[in-house]
Amino acid sequence: MGAIAAMRSRFLRRFTRHRLATVSAVVLALLALAALAAPLIESAMGVDQTAVSLLDRYGPPSFEHPLGTDELGRDVLVRLLYGGRVSLFVGLAAALASAVIGTAIGLLAGYFGGRVDDALMRLTDVLIALPLLPLLIVLSAIDPTRLGVPEDWVSGEDASLGRIVVLVALFGWTTVARLVRGATLSARRRDYVRAAVALGAGSRRIMLAHILPNVAAPAVVAVTLTVGNVILLESVLSFLGLGIQPPLPSWGNMLTNAQELVSTAPMLAVWPGLLIFVTVIAVNLLGDGLQDALDPRSGGSR
Amino acid sequence: MTRFLASRLLQAVLVLLLMSVLVTVLIALMPGDPVDLMLAGNPKATAADAARLKALYGLDRPLWERYVNWLGAALTGDFGYSRLFAQPVPAVLLPRLGNTLLLLGASFMLAVAIALPLGVLAARKPYSLLDDAVNLFCFAGISVPPFWLALLLILLFAVTLGWLPASGMGPVGEEGWLARLPHFVLPVATLTLASVGGYTRYVRSAMLVELRQDYVRTARAKGLGEGQVVWRHTLRNALIPIVTIVALEFGTLFSGALVTETMFAWPGMGKLIYDSIMGNDLNVALVALLLATATTLAGNLLADVAYAALDPRITFKDVRS
Fold first, then answer.
1. DSSP 3-state assignment of B258?
2. Which one, A167, A275, B46, B253, has least CB within 10 Å?
3. What single DSSP character describes residue A260?
4. Which pLDDT score, from 0 to 100, does residue B209 have?
């Protein structure tokens, strides 16, 4: 086999040794599939997730509504699936954005060192020192039109999606940046980099073609772990009413009223949170397994 | 060490200043004018009244002027008046700070008290069934959405079983800490459960690293009992990274408290931050957020100082200042 194929199969073998991580990967794949298939399931069941029907409030689980109906008579199962789309999308999008920003900053800081590194790391430290949730609350509550953002960018359901992705990515890049910087620092001393410099390669080429592929592994792990945190952040913000706005469902905002309903309809409080929990723990276990499979010395759980 | 402290304190002041500017700008960007909000419920208020009040509160001045005025007053100890609570800001803030510290302190101590033995036990028998169980528990702890955990606890203990109250700090009218104790349980339980997973993981990793060291093998070869080896020698050394990381986590406690306090209607800083931001009460929100930032900064400083102080191999010069 070629070298790359051998690496891949070694990686897969190490990964599948982690039963939990493999199970997590499968669970996440199933969740993602179910979420993507939401419109199909919706029409197969013959319900409309936006249809408000006050006569059918708090319906118990039935054939027509396998998980019952919520406080406005909407089918819970379908809403959960649509909410999954939103929550998973935000999680992935924000994590990817954080990855891009964090990798760029980490590469620059690690490669150039000196003043650049100092400045960038100070920036990172300042961001880490700020109280995250209170700041996010303030940031979500502002009215961007006062900043001159055009009105039609701000209103509408999709706007709340874009906004929360931007907000979460604003703070989420710090972990990735730190990890990438560390990996860059050690990669910089390797011989292949010295060889590239001796051959006259410019900084950009060295960073992109040589260092980046070698820091990809820790970066991927950092990003996977970020996804979990991002999903939790989005759910808290939506729960507080500041993230995804209803009627667009997200697992977080499905729980917003749950506290008042806890005596009348307890299961409404259980399902969305359970899904958040299962998703995040699966992502974390997956990240842990990835970390160990990619680099067993790195000190993951195993 | 004084140079280190001085430079860190200077940095802290700069961060706080930066934060105060940031928050002022952000709150000014929030929809709704505070005076309009105040007069919203009053049908007799006229536009002239609104204009008069705005001039009175200085809301018609440009933002930078308002900020500078605030800064000048704050440096002399005058933090202004809370629109929402109709009291001077310190009177609003201090009792609530006490309530939050009570909650955070209790859950922090409880979480550490659980995490230390659990982490050590798991590290002693790596990859065993116990270790797997502890690991899963830790992952669950860091993955659970805290507000959902609170909901579940309320559902189980307050609604279904009716054993514990679901909100507030104490029964109305009754004084004395004994009567208040049941109100403590659920919020503290939520915060503890949410943080214990993370702490246990750190303890376990730190112990695993230490247990691989040569001195442990020497101690065992000398004939020391396993208990002595683990608890007396290894744990001490493992405490260095543990203390460092735990001090860093200190800063995030505030965020956790925010959600818990809001859910349990616990009158503390977290809920105050939320209420004041939502209620557009700039004076309170600004000082509260600055306090939260200061706590995080203090936690980071404590972590670095502890790291240098506890490990004789590390001097302050090594710690990033």
1. helix
2. B46
3. G
4. 82
CB B99 within 8 Å of CB B109 = no
* Cβ pair A279, A202 in contact under 8 A: no
* pLDDT mean over B179-200: 87
Which tens digit of pLDDT belongs to each residue from B88-143?
A: 888 888 888 888 888 888 998 899 899 988 988 888 888 888 888 898 899 999 99
Give phi and psi for B32, each to the nearest 5.
Answer: 90, 130
Task: Please tell me whether residue A271 adopts helix, strand or coil conformation.
Answer: helix
User: If residue A279 lies in a helix (H) or strand (E), which one and from where to where?
Assistant: helix A266-294
Q: What is the ipTM of this complex?
A: 0.83
Q: How far is A139 from chain B (nearest CA, A)?
A: 7
Tell the residue number behind the tokens 């995080």, with chain if given: B296
C-beta neighbour count of A282 within 10 angstroms: 24
**Chain B residues within 8 A of A236 when measuring between CB atoms:** 145-147, 259
Give the total residue count for chain A.
302
d(CA A160, CA A158): 5
Q: Give the distance, in angstroms, between the CA of residue A86 and the centroid of all CA atoms in the same chain.
A: 11
DSSP class of residue B82 equals E
% of chain B exceeding 70 in pLDDT: 93
Q: What ranges in chain B are assigned the alpha helix state H? A: 2-28, 34-39, 47-57, 63-75, 89-124, 129-143, 146-153, 177-211, 214-221, 226-227, 235-264, 269-278, 282-310
- Alpha carbons A275 and A87: distance in angstroms, whole number: 10
> What is the number of alpha carbons within 13 Å of residue B136 lying toward its C-beta?
12
- Please answer yes or no on whether A236 and B147 come within 8 Å at the CB atom: yes
A-B C-beta contacts closer than 8 Å: 133
The structure tokens 């469902």 sit at: A249
Q: Which residue from A111, A53, A58 is spatially nearest to A258, judged by alpha carbons?
A: A58
Residues B3-8, mean pLDDT to the nearest whole number: 82
Q: Nearest-CA neighbor of A195 among A211, A216, A172?
A: A211
Q: Is A240 on the interface with B (CB under 8 A)?
A: yes
**Residue of chain B nearest A258, judged by CA positions:** B151
Distances (CA, A) of A41 to A81, A157, B36: 9, 22, 47
Q: Which two tokens mark B181?
A: 């104790």
| φ, ψ dihedrals at A150, nearest 5° | -60, 145
What is chain A's Cα-based Rg? 22
Q: Residue A126: its chain B contacts at CB < 8 A?
A: 15, 18
Q: Check pLDDT > 50 for residue B233.
A: yes
Interface probe with A: pick from B22, B148, B258, B319, most Cβ of A within 10 Å: B148
Q: Please tell me what DSSP assigns to residue A75.
A: B
